[in-house]
Design brief:
Blueprint (H helix, E strand, L loop, with lengths): L1 E6 L2 E5 L1 H13 L7 H5 L1 H22 L6 E5 L2 E5 L6 H28 L7 H21 L7 H11 L4 H26 L2 H22 L7
Amino acid sequence: MIHLGSIGRTSIDIDLSFLIIMGLFVATFYNREIGLKYALLWAPVLFLSVLLHELAHAAAIGAFGYGASQIILGGMGGVTINQRRARPWQDMIISAAGPASSFVIAWLTTLVMVNVPIAGRDPMLIAFLPLLQKANVWWGIFNLIPVNPMDGGHIVRNFLRMFLKERAAFAVAVWIAIIVGAAIVALGIYIGFYLLALLIAWYVYINIQQWRQFRKGGFPGE
């Protein structure tokens, strides 16, 4: 784990797994005809997109008065850790803040591309800004999939917690995750998005394990 520093009282750390994922993206999008420079743009795009996404969660947590958080960038994304006891509607807003920030970043990037002259002249910006825009659109959409541990899964569960008891909300949310996740896995295989199918299949497995623990009388943690 590498400690990158703090923004306000929110500490930021990066796990080796996140650096490996960035390296895989660079290797995947490397093209001999275009050169290494374009592929290397994935490193700052991924770092900024995920970091700003998690900072939005931390900002929402702070806005509700629950203090400082710890952000860890790892694996395919990141996590914002805070030992809070928030109300369901607050947790729903905190979860939604991440995807919302991704869409805002995509929108602001579009404004820059359209209205800032240098964005259409500078070769680096011509390559970087569209990549940043597309990455945040897809990152926002991906995180809204209602499958725990993604933000969409947390949004669904916390929404249900406003009307149902905790155990009932969990049971409904986990079955939504299993059914929707299985459908996305099938779609991913059908259209050839095998990485997406594999990742969502793993999340579906996690939800199935949580359901089994729940049936035995335990209550799975997030």
